[in-house]
Amino acid sequence: VLRGAALRCRSVERAGRATDCLLLSYTFWRKMVLGRTPAHLKAMLRNMVTSLIKHERIRTTLPKAKRVQPLAERLVTKCKEDTHANRGYVMGIVREEVAVEKLFLVLGPRYKERQGGYTRIMKLADRRKGDGADMAIIEYVDREGELRRARPPRPQGPPRPEY
């Protein structure tokens, strides 16, 4: 009986062997969804990005921080320009009105001149008690009370010649 990730693999029907497909798909799927169902993962990412917006720094496990970082960066990029479409996109992910207003009124203008790299992940030396998971802090850069100063922007090289 095929269950879980093996059902999602198309080569099962063709090859007739579930073992190879199950091993490859299962490990990939577990890493991708952090051991959660897709609905649980979506809810967790929404909650984490909302907490990150409200507090501007959260402490979590390293895989979760790596997974929430692109979503947080994308939201700040959308909030640089306050349009109806951008506001609708952000409100579809962040459900708290306080966090949405903070994005558009505080974080968007703060990073208006910055082209990406709004967040930083710092690994912590101590592991979580109980399961020994790697812990990390994800925070916005260029803010009051940050743990480490942001690097100055790299100087731009000469312009590329057009052919």
UniProtKB/TrEMBL annotation:
SUPFAM superfamilies xref list: Prokaryotic ribosomal protein L17
Gene3D superfamilies assigned: Ribosomal protein L17
Keyword Ribosomal protein: yes
Name under which the protein is recorded: 50S ribosomal protein L17
Pfam families for the chain: Ribosomal_L17
Organism of this sequence: Pinguiococcus pyrenoidosus
Gene Ontology biological process terms from the UniProt entry: translation
Gene Ontology molecular functions: structural constituent of ribosome
A GO CC term attached to the entry: cytosolic large ribosomal subunit
Similarity comment: Belongs to the bacterial ribosomal protein bL17 family.
Annotated NCBIfam families: L17 (TIGR00059)
Ribonucleoprotein as UniProt keyword: yes
